Each structure stands twice: as C-alpha cells, then as structure tokens.
From TrEMBL:
This is Fibronectin type III and SPRY domain containing 2. It holds the Pfam family SPRY. SUPFAM superfamilies: Concanavalin A-like lectins/glucanases, Fibronectin type III. The keyword Membrane does not apply. It comes from Anabas testudineus (Climbing perch).
Length: 320
C-alpha cells in the first residue's frame, strides 16, 4: 500500500487490495520523536465487481436466469442484481449466491448488472448485459458436447464430421455411447411455455428433443423414460421419422420433409410438440407430465449440421 505522510488530521491510503481487511493506526511525530501508536482500527475494502457469465445466462417470456463469478479471492457477504427495463426506472434484488432467477414481464428488454457487497460496501457495477423476454433463449452447453461435435463461433450451429471448423469441444457428458453424438442446451428452469426452432436438411440423421436433468447420459435420446425426441432416419426407400420416448414410437408417416422444425414445450400442460414451420404443420405431441425441469437436446447420427434458433416468439398455432 502507499501511505502519504500528512501534517493534517487525515491522509490518503492508496493501492489497497479489493475485498481485504486492513488494520490502521496513527502515530504523531515532533522534534522529540514518535508517539505511541493510536488504537488500531479495522477497515474492509469493497469487493471487485462480479463478472457475469453471459454464455451461462438464459431467459424466457416470464423470467431470466443470470449467473456470474464473484471476481474476488475472498468471500463476499452478498450480491445485488440491478435490473432496469429499457426506458424505465430500475429495481434491486439482494441474493446470497452467484446466480439469480428473476421474474420479468413478457416481451420486454432489460438491462441487468450485478454488484458484490461486503461490510465495506458495494463494489462497482459489473458489465451491463441486455436480456430479452421475447422468447426462450438458451446457449448450448459446450462441456456436454460429444468430442466428435463442433459448434459455430456464435454457439448455435452444431457440426459433426467437419474437421475444418475452428472449435473442438471436450466431452464431459455424452447422450450416447454408440452412434448418436449429442449436446445439451441450458436447463429450462421456469414453468410455462417455451419455443425454439431447429434447421435441418434431408441428408442428416438427427434427434432433437428434451431430457430431464438427471437423465442417464449413456443412453440414446428417446430410449428411456426421461427423454423425448423426434428422430430422422435415412432408409434405402424413404425418409423415416420417429417420435421416441422410452424406446417406443407411434407409427406416423410424414410426407413432406421438414427443413425447419419448431419445438414447443409447455410445462404446465405437460406437452412437447413438433411442427414443420414452413407448412405450419403439426407433426406430433408427447403428453409428458414433466416431474423435473428439462434440457433441450440435439443429436446427430451421421455427419451433418443442425442450427438452433431461439429467443424467438412462438407462432400462434404452436400452443393452441
């Protein structure tokens, strides 16, 4: 630290570490010498600002889940989340941990930041992020990706079999030990309605759907009682589509291959529905009665690509 000698009754102490406790005392000096030290005082510096982990934040029409890192070596007492709707006054929420699920209004845009708090006071504000509640928005969880998968730099196109792509992901959790390679999206921890879309092509075999957070990772998506999916298979004679749960699918025929598939999740009604977006055509609905929150899931059975579109408003026909 830097202490500046003073002839006044105060001085400035600089270069203190954030979120640290110091003992301070004063001595007086004259021509005779230095006095005994004063009584010691304890002083706690304010924390460093937290760092919001934007790629681990998600939102939906009713709420947002915000996650951050403390930014401090020593523990802090609490955090305050500051949110303000664009063009309106703000509010503050006190929380004890490094995440907060905030109830919000549908169809709005919010500015959100976080401060760390200790006995010395609040830190400076973190970087401000913008959160939209137009639709459900989630990131793909890179640490759940099979090692054969790559994703685009924006995090929303999933590739299998293209060695030229710049990002290779390390596998920690795998949704299949055999042919299908998969990745999870953020857990959707808010009851209500959620919607996203997936671009596909005729030559790609895929599985898209949802799985409980406690689903066994060493099983196919749709092969157990805790996951549900739409599957596309290429056969010598046709394109085959299955809607799998617990290893079983109804016998359905889809005559027009969908290019963009809408996925509509309704926790309250216990339904998971799939649509051909271009035709506004309903393909299938699972009646699930979800006991737990779920992850969106995306898998590829052969080389190809899937592109995920989220943060978009659900079409009117999806939740009729």
């Amino acid at each position: 630290m830097m202490i500046t000698p003073s002839t006044e009754t105060h001085c400035t102490v600089t270069e203190l570490l954030p979120n640290a406790q110091y003992e301070l005392w004063v001595t007086a000096t004259n021509t005779t010498g230095i006095s005994p030290a004063s009584e010691k005082a304890l002083y706690m510096t304010v924390p460093s600002p937290p760092v919001i982990k934007q790629r681990e934040c998600s939102s939906c029409p009713e709420a947002a889940l915000i996650r951050w890192e403390s930014g401090n070596t020593n523990p802090v007492d609490s955090y305050t989340v500051e949110l303000r709707e664009v063009g309106a006054d703000g509010t503050t929420i006190a929380v004890p941990t490094c995440q907060c699920l905030i109830q919000l209004q549908t169809g709005r845009h919010y500015l959100i930041s976080v401060r760390a708090v200790n006995i010395g006071g609040p830190s400076d504000r973190s970087e401000v992020i913008t959160v939209s509640t137009i639709g459900t928005f989630f990131y793909l969880l890179e640490d759940t990706a099979h090692p054969c998968l790559s994703i685009s730099e924006d995090g929303f196109t999933i590739f299998y079999g293209d060695e030229e792509l710049p990002i290779r992901l390390i596998c920690k959790h795998v949704l299949s030990v055999h042919r299908c390679v998969a990745i999870l999206g953020d857990l959707i921890p808010v009851r209500g309605r959620h919607y996203w879309e997936v671009e596909v092509d005729d030559g790609t075999e895929f599985r898209i759907g949802v799985a409980n957070e406690n689903t066994e990772r060493n099983s196919y998506l749709g092969a157990n009682s805790t996951s549900w999916c739409m599957r596309h298979i290429l056969t010598p004679s046709r394109h085959k589509y299955e809607f799998l749960h617990n290893g079983w699918s109804p016998d359905l025929r889809i005559t027009v291959n969908p290019v963009r598939i809408g996925v509509a999740l309704d926790y309250d009604r216990g339904t998971l529905s799939f649509f051909n977006v271009d035709l506004e055509q309903h393909l299938h609905t699972f009646h699930c009665h979800f006991q737990n929150y779920v992850h969106p899931c995306f898998g590829l059975d052969n080389p190809g690509a899937l592109t995920v579109h989220n943060g978009i408003e659900a079409p009117e026909y999806t939740f009729i």
